[in-house]
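Entry 14. Ran structure prediction on the chain below.
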Amino acid sequence: MSPGRRRSKPPVRGYGITGWSRAFVGVVEAGADHRRITGARRYFRERHVDGLEISHGSVTGSVRGSQLDPFDVRLDMRTVDPETVISLLQKTGSVDDLLALARGEQPAALGNLIAPTEAADVMSDCSCPDDAPRCTHVLAVAFEVAAEIDRRPTTLLTVMGTDLPELLAQAQGDEADDAGEPDESTSGTLIADDPFGDHLMPPPVPSFPAMDPLTLLDPTLLRQALRATGVPLTEVAEALDDLAMYYDVLERRR
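Output, structure tokens:
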């Protein structure tokens, strides 16, 4: 290394940067003592967690601790009910939170329904001899999950037993059910809003040829737009894949 040139330091790792991530960490940390939390933060910074796997309603991983063999950790969640989530979003007029989530945001109303709220919502188990409810290894794995939620908000949905396509499908299904319910005031005939008082049915919605808008967009401009929303350069390709998946879900449920 030439004189005067300093060796660049690796970036400092963080977690709990976003609201959803802090909500998850806060529940897991509840009741843990400062010593274990401090040790878990060091394990997180030094990347002692290996093989992290986040599936619907559970998380597994191994943590290299003070002993030769790593300790196995498992987190099991009290999962959410998609039907209940959508019903509550509809009652509060917050269904658009699903679209905000698809844009990479963390809408508060949806987060309040998805995120765990008490320690019992997250059950933990570790193969280490520490009999504390939240040992250092459990906390370290939770911090890794929190970092993933910071990076990709939809991770919280997976952790809590659902995903965005499932919620979108539930919302679409509810809308279809509502549209199929007859209005008793029209003697069994479904009539739309009647602003002109003529009680005439509106014309049918015209059909349009099938198309994939993602293939018609300028890929350079689309990448620039994603970058402008805060998507890291290294995750643009993944964000494009997510957009294609969300559009496919909406198209199939139309």
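Residues 213-254 form one domain. Will compare against last week's run tomorrow.
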